[in-house]
Amino acid sequence: MATRKEVAEHLFMTVQNVGKLINNDVFQAKLGANPLDMDHCRRSYIAYLQKQGRYTSKDGTGDITEEKTRLTKAQADKAQLDVAVLEGKLIPTDQVEETWINYTSNCRGKMLTIPNKVAHLVLASEDFAEVEKIIKQAIYEALEELANDPIPQEYRESTLVNEKDMESTT
Known about the structure:
By secondary structure, the protein is an all-alpha fold. Helix content is 72%, strand content 0%. The protein has seven helices and no strands.
């Protein structure tokens, strides 16, 4: 049996650290002048240090094992995304953004030209049905032009391959 000071000297730590380890239930102290078992404290402290050195996903301690695991997972995720791009199942976000900006601005332009195209025809029309037909026809023309496939050429080919694969399996 030993005192806190003796255990601290034996384990190369301060008496305050021994007190913290007792409070954290790493060391078990008994009542009396020499409350600690030196052998038990040494084994408990070694087990405590080993536990602190291990990786646990909950702790996020930043040890080397955790960092290697994070790196391996990131590499696997990247490889999975690369495969999805190659299979045509994934398109880069900047490409999607650029395509949709072009698509919506093209749509806006086509819709804004409709009044210029049909204004003179509407003025020359005799009845409401003819005006309605002229406006609908102009709108359908604009929508038909916009109905073309907006997928960029480099990704269009890979999606066509996937469509053919899907058709052959059905």
